[in-house]
Write a structure and sequence with these properties.
12 helices, elongated
């Protein structure tokens, strides 16, 4: 290889290192948004008004996001895919954390029902984000997603430099107030394993419960349709064709009696679309399924830290092997591109080894920290939230059933 190519290789390598360092400093030294606002101020946010834009292959739907928070008012339109990109960025920057779920991507043409369902589920996502202030008041969500006028918001989010491990460690200390980072005790690991096992079993249970609710809901819908057919068509027609000639006064009839306002109102209710408790149950089960999947992702992102640590350890071994060859006076691939003497190469490698070892130690520390946060903060909070959620579900179901029973009683009377 020529001397010119060697110098070009060295310049490119140096430029890449400088760019990475600059990007890292920019991200780490940026003032934390949540420290600049009053997080006790109420947050209002709503997703609404889906609008179809473009044509052909470019056709897509945008959703209006309006609201007010500690930074002021905002109103912006976002595509569904941009919610996905946002969530992926949050998952990468907050390992071991529950990130609220969003609905699955839809393959094929969009229907009005699908669009309206997305609006409802995206509202749930935003509502849950408001309850997790350290996620809401991040630059990614509160500044970029809710306020940026950038045409390509996905590219802007993906272009954000990943925070350094040291920055994440300091950030987790500040947010979760766990300062004594140590090797998680055995009970901590057992607790995590038990929760993961329980959630995976619950997924299977919810799937079976959903199928049962769907089957019962379909049967009840068929029954309701048949009931409506009998009361709105068959019996009134029977009265008109058979009974009318047998009575002197139409007021003695039931369905064709113009004065029977109570029956008319009930028949009108049957014609209208009613929300069945079983339909409501299906919806609640689906929401819970997404929530469980999202919480299980917290364990996956925690494990990803180990994968990153292993990559750095592999790099450490390569550098150690390089140093051994240099100390033995053997030629190396990197040495072929270097103008440094063997002693200078040795010193450079030793310094590099120190830096890489520090990085390995940081990943180990961060993994321990995330494990403690997940065990003592996230799991306990998730349990409390689920208890409250299930209480509301039971209350809503009971209310719907009582309303249906009352409606049936009124009909019998």
């Amino acid at each position: 290889m020529s001397q010119e190519n060697i110098e070009q290789f060295q310049q490119e390598e140096q430029q890449q290192e400088e760019q990475q360092d600059t990007a890292q400093i920019t991200q780490d030294e940026k003032p934390k948004l949540e420290d600049q606002v009053d997080q006790n101020l109420p947050i209002f946010i709503q997703v609404s008004d889906p609008i179809e834009k473009g044509s052909g292959m470019q056709k897509h739907v945008v959703y209006a996001i309006k609201g007010r928070d500690a930074l002021g008012e905002f109103e912006i339109y976002r595509r569904f895919n941009e919610f996905y990109v946002l969530r992926d960025v949050l998952l990468a920057n907050w390992p071991g954390q529950y990130i609220p779920p969003i609905p699955e991507k839809q393959i094929g043409s969009m229907t009005i029902e699908t669009t309206n369902e997305r609006v409802r589920l995206l509202n749930i996502f935003c509502m849950k984000m408001t309850q997790i202030k350290h996620l809401y008041y991040t630059d990614e969500f509160a500044n970029i997603f809710l306020r940026s006028g950038n045409v390509d918001i996905s590219k802007q989010l993906q272009a954000l430099s990943k925070p350094s491990v040291q920055f994440q460690i300091d950030n987790y200390k500040r947010v979760f107030e766990i300062y004594d980072i140590k090797e998680p005790p055995l009970e901590c690991i057992q607790k995590m394993n038990a929760v993961q096992s329980f959630l995976k079993k619950s997924q299977g249970l919810l799937n079976r419960l959903y199928d049962q609710a769907k089957s019962l809901s379909s049967a009840r819908k068929t029954l309701r349709e048949q009931q409506s057919l009998v009361l709105n068509a068959i019996l009134p027609e029977y009265e008109r064709l058979v009974l009318t000639d047998c009575v002197e006064n139409n007021k003695k009839l039931i369905f064709t009696n113009p004065n029977n306002q109570e029956l008319s109102q009930y028949l009108q209710q049957l014609k209208e679309v009613q929300v069945s408790p079983l339909d409501k149950l299906q919806d609640l089960i689906t929401t819970e399924q997404r929530d469980l999947e999202a919480f299980l992702q917290a364990f996956i992102t925690r494990d990803n830290i180990l994968g990153q640590k292993q990559k750095v350890e592999s790099k450490l071994r390569d550098e150690q092997e390089e140093l051994s060859r240099v100390m033995a006076g053997k030629p190396t691939l990197k040495g072929a591109f270097s103008k440094l003497s063997l002693e200078e190469q040795k010193q450079k490698l030793e310094m590099s080894l120190q830096d890489i070892q520090k990085e390995v130690d940081l990943y180990k520390l961060f993994y321990q920290q995330v494990t403690l946060v997940l065990t003592y903060k996230q799991i306990d909070k998730f349990k409390r939230d689920k208890h409250e959620s299930y209480k509301r579900i039971i209350g809503d179901m009971a209310k719907l059933e009582m309303e249906k029973v009352e409606c049936c009683r009124s009909t019998i009377k």
